[in-house]
């Protein structure tokens, strides 16, 4: 299971994704657990969040894969 802090670190490690965008993702996607499910299954859904670009999605996916590889 991913902790809130770990998820925050994964997403915030992405260039251009600061506190406001992080909070917007969590709020609009329905919470941390929902975001983990999205990262696992269909990260492109995050494009529905204002300010999130395809390049950010690529970097989020990379960060997520790296994190899982460390577990």
Structure explained in plain terms:
This protein is globular. The protein has helices at residues 4-12, 19-29, 32-41, 54-70. The chain is 66% helix and 0% strand. By secondary structure, it is mostly helical. The model has no long low-confidence stretch (mean pLDDT 96).
Give a quick rundown of the structure.
This protein is mostly helical and 71 residues long.
Helices and strands in order, then pairings?
Elements: H1 4-12, H2 19-29, H3 32-41, H4 54-70
| Global mean pLDDT | 96
Q: Termini distance? A: 10 Å
How many H/I helical runs? 4
Q: What is Rg?
A: 11 Å
How many distinct beta strands? 0
Helix content: 55-70%
What global shape is seen? globular
Write the H/E string, N to C: HHHH
Instruction: Quote the beta fraction.
Output: under 5%
Class by alpha and beta content: mainly alpha
Low-confidence sequence ranges: none
